[in-house]
Design a protein that fits this description.
Largest sheet: 5 strands, mixed
Helix content: 40-55%
Distance between the termini: 22 Å
Number of helices: 13
Strand content: 15-25%
Strand order of the largest sheet: 4-5-7-6-8
Length: about 400
């Protein structure tokens, strides 16, 4: 669950940065095809950055002890007195809320498809220029995939002709596919308010592209008058293109605006350093470069044939998330020690042997026999790990784990 929440958080941050870049530098450019590609591209990139970092989410630290020996120090585990009675942790609660929103979004999308199917069934259907046109007085002009909705259609009426050409251009340019892709990401990131702004921006770019084509077959005055003509207002799914649903003023400005110069495309190059920065922050999780002393220590096992640091450190079943879950579910605060107010950190040490089993569990520094025994028992009964490797061979590796018993937060 923690990995899921981490992915959603990192992807949301990337998406916010990339969209704000669009609003600040690119939204006013008339290179509509580039803007369309950018808006769709940032959706994919925002998910790609955190996914690339998933294989290296855990990069365990190497610490230097006072005695001059290197240890592999695992993340501290905290045992609260109320842990056994806690049914749902806060991260799990967030994950449950997210999944409920996800299920709702999927159900809503399926319901929208059913709604579209039903409204087309009650309309008159005609095949015009290779497209199915569904005609009903309650419809507002719209298009979806290869379907066109019209309140009326008259071959000899100029308005019907222009509206039909308008919707045909949406279909030719594949705008419905864009909206379906966006619908997927909007379901995935239903909690992110910027997704609604991205949808608005993408639909705006779609209209700019179609407007550019329409002024080639009609005068600007004629087309502008068509944009302000009232049609029946029908609320429908967000993945359907409705005619005359965006700010007319902005569209007329874009139709009359001079084409952006080729030099203006250099603004898109600004994406490159941003992508490089996001890649560095979210995808390049570098491990600490070992010092000469560590390299020397790694190259030689101790007298007991146990390594302290190796090229590939041992990995628990389910990764660190699985290891932490095992400890949280099995470590319990002894009631009598809790009542006596005893708390503190137990430092345990163990060896992951060549077969992945945990052995030689010891307490480096304890605080109370009951707390020490609880830590020893859980570690001795923990599931096997994937063994560490050195020079391509499975080896014994020493690990150290701090376990903090604390009565209250």
């Amino acid at each position: 669950m923690t990995t899921l929440l981490t992915f959603l958080l990192e992807a949301s941050i990337c998406l916010s940065i990339l969209y704000l870049l669009y609003r600040g530098l690119l939204a006013k450019c008339t290179h509509f095809g580039w803007n369309r590609l950018y808006l769709l591209g940032i959706l994919v990139l925002s998910c790609l950055f955190p996914l690339l970092s998933l294989p290296s989410l855990w990069s365990p630290p190497i610490i230097f002890s006072q005695g001059g020996e290197f240890y592999h120090n695992l993340e501290e585990v905290v045992v609260w007195y109320n842990q056994p009675s806690s049914l749902v942790s806060f991260p799990h609660l967030l994950a449950i809320v997210y999944l409920l929103g996800l299920v709702y979004g999927i159900a809503r999308f399926i319901g929208s498809l059913v709604w579209f199917y039903r409204i087309t069934k009650k309309a008159e259907r005609r095949k015009v220029n290779g497209y199915w046109v569904y005609i009903h007085p309650e419809f507002k002009p719209a298009s979806f995939l290869n379907y066109i909705l019209m309140p009326e259609y008259d071959l000899d009426h100029r308005t019907s002709e222009l509206v039909l050409v308008h919707e045909q251009n949406h279909i030719k340019m594949g705008h419905s596919i864009d909206l379906l892709v966006l619908e997927f990401f909007q379901i995935l990131f239903w909690f992110h308010p910027l997704l609604y702004l991205i949808r608005k921006s993408l639909k705006e770019v779609h209209e700019f592209q179609v407007d550019k084509e329409l002024v080639k077959v009609s005068s600007l005055k004629e087309y502008a008058s068509l944009l302000i003509e009232p049609f029946a207002q029908v609320r429908g799914p967000s993945f359907i293109h409705y005619f005359n649903h965006l700010q007319i003023k902005n569209r007329i400005i874009m139709m009359t605006k001079s084409q952006s110069t080729p030099w203006a495309k250099s603004r898109y190059a600004l994406l490159l350093p941003i992508v490089a920065l996001l890649t560095f922050v979210f995808s390049c999780e570098k491990e600490a470069e070992p010092t000469d002393d560590v390299r020397a220590l790694s190259a030689k096992p101790s007298k007991t044939n146990v390594f302290d640091v190796v090229e590939d450190m041992p990995v628990p079943q389910g990764g660190m998330e699985g290891w932490n879950r095992y400890l949280q579910e099995n470590l319990h605060y002894p009631p009598d020690a809790r009542e006596e107010g005893i708390e503190g950190t137990v430092y345990a040490e163990f060896v992951v042997d060549e077969s992945g089993k945990i052995r030689d569990v010891e307490i480096l520094r304890g605080i109370d026999n009951r707390l020490d025994a609880e830590a020893l028992n859980v570690l001795k009964n923990s599931p096997n790990w994937s063994p560490g490797k050195h020079d391509g061979k499975d080896v014994n590796v020493k690990m150290r784990l701090p376990i903090r018993f604390q009565k209250s937060k």
